[in-house]
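Subject: complex prediction, re-run

Hi both,

The earlier run crashed halfway through, so I resubmitted it with identical inputs.
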Amino acid sequence: MSEPEGPSYRIEAIRAAHVRNDFDCGHPFLNHYLARYARQNDRSGIARAFVMVPVPAGNPVVGYYTLAAGAVAFEKLPKAVRKKLPRYPVPVARIGELAVDERFQGKGLGSVLLIDALRRILDASKEVAVWAVVVDPIDVQAACFYRKFGFEALADSEIMFLPMKEAATWLM
Amino acid sequence: MPKQERIDFRVDAEIKAQFVEAAESLGMNLSAFIIAAAQELATRAQRRSRTMVLSEADRDRFLAALDRAARPAPSAVEKAKRLHRELVTGE
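This time it finished cleanly. Structure:
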C-alpha cells in the first residue's frame, strides 16, 4: 500500500483551542458563524460543530460542519398517511453549515466533511431514530454540491434531503 | 402594521461604511438594507430551528423516497469515501 500524498487531517468536536478567526470560505455568514457562534451553539446544544484541522499541527481550522436534530411535518396529513408513520413529525438529522477555507478548496475536502457528517449521523441513528438527512443549501452552488451526493430537492421548500436508509447503504 | 418599535445599536465606523456602501449599491437606504439583510437571516434561522413543514406534493415525494429501495451510490459518494480514508486520520 502506498502512503497517501499530501497533508492529512483530523475531524473533531470543536474546542476553545481551535483557531478559527482567519477562516475564510468566501461566505461571510459561514465565516462569522464559525468564529463567533459555532462553539457557543455547540455548548448550548443548539447544534454540534465538528472541525477539520491539519495533523500533526492541530490548527488552524480548514473546514467545519454542524449537526442538529430536526423534524419534518406536513401541511396536510390524511389519516391513511398518518397510519403508515410510526413517528410523526418525522425525525431527521440536519447538516446546518458545511464549509472549507478557500485556501484549501479544490481538494475535495467538502466531500470528505460530508461523508464524515453522514457517518456521524449514521452512528447516532443506531441510538436515536433518524429517517433522513436534511440540508438547507446556502446558495445554488451548495445545492449542486448536495445533488451530486444524492440529496433530492423539493418543489415548495428550500431544503434537500437524503433518506437515511440510502445513506446507510452507501456508507457500508 | 404601523412601525412603532425602534432598534438602536452602535457599530464601529468600518462596519457602518461597509453597510452604507452596500446599501447604496442596491439603491436602498441604510435601514431598509439592514432590515432586508436581517430578515433573510431570520428566515434561515427559523427554517433551522422549527419543524420543517412540507406541502402536499413535497410530502408525497419525501415519503416515497423514504419507502423506496436504496438507489445505487452516486460516484461522488464512492470517491469521497476513498478521499476520507486517505486524508482523515482515525481518532
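Residues 8-171 of chain A form a domain with the Aminopeptidase fold (CATH 3.40.630.30).

- K.
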